[in-house]
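Example (one chain per record):
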Amino acid sequence: MTTQAAQQPQGELGPEQLLQMSLSFTPSRVLSSALQLDVFSHIAAGKRTADDVASAAGANARAMRMLLDALAGLQLLVKKNEGYELTPASENFLVRSSPTYLGTMMENDQIWNSWTNLTEVVRTGKPVRLVEDQRVAEDFFPMLVRSLHIMNSEPARRLAEALGAGTSSNGLRVVDVACGSGVWGIAIAEADRSARVTAQDFPGVFNVTREFVKRHNLEDRFDYLPGDLKEVDFGEERYDLAILGNIVHSEGERSSRDLFKRLHKALAPGGRIAILEMVPNDERTGPPFALLFALNMLVNTEEGGTYTLAEYTDWLKTAGFSRVETADIGSHSPAIIGIKE
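Predicted structure:
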């Protein structure tokens, strides 16, 4: 008898792969629940058995054992006899007291709840919420950017290197637009010891920005420009470098084109704009992350999405930038750099 697997053309998805895809949300939920129950922190504090972790978390012991076993299966814990231990990754990134804690963005279900409405959003074209709205942004982004700071620290260092920060005798004048934690501007300031950074964002985000700036001992070299990036006055020929770190995807084409024009005006001759984004190929057939993230913007913003290098090149040149280059920063997509002559 010919089996179904034998009939399936090599490289094509079959029933088993499709079923696995339909359940691919489960590791995400396991990790989020573990963080919301502070499982990793309890184990770090010496709670090793399912009963002890359940007691510390205020949870059911049988259910906790099943959750811990799943975490072990996902290689987020090591199970020894009836006890559980942290892996190096979970100790570094999932224990709340760790300086490299990544779990903040998973401690609540805001992102999850938006995605559960994807079907209706596709039917109507209307998002669940508008994260670009100031009221929503000042609630959502302080939580999100704490995790993103850890994720983007190394790409930010590589961006500073690619831009030659610190190689000139004159300090760069930098504006970090919608700066969040300030990770991109902080990397420039650390590479160029005479640089001065203007952090721009909604006022309610600046508490987090100031926290990270203080952590990096850069308080004396940061200024703050509060306001909506759609309306704030960036001035004229004031900066050598403008950074847009994962901003365009939430703004969309119309707002971004206007922002590029205003930043071109704000840059001195020879100034540069650096754009960090999820960039799909020109055919929009990959990579998957960039295409899936476009849907994340569909459910969370009015006009956001992800855009190709060809689109960015057109928008930047229309805004007045004479050259567009890319730089590999060891991330999912290259940095896009527009240069003003």
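Caption: The first strand starts at residue 77 and ends at 80.
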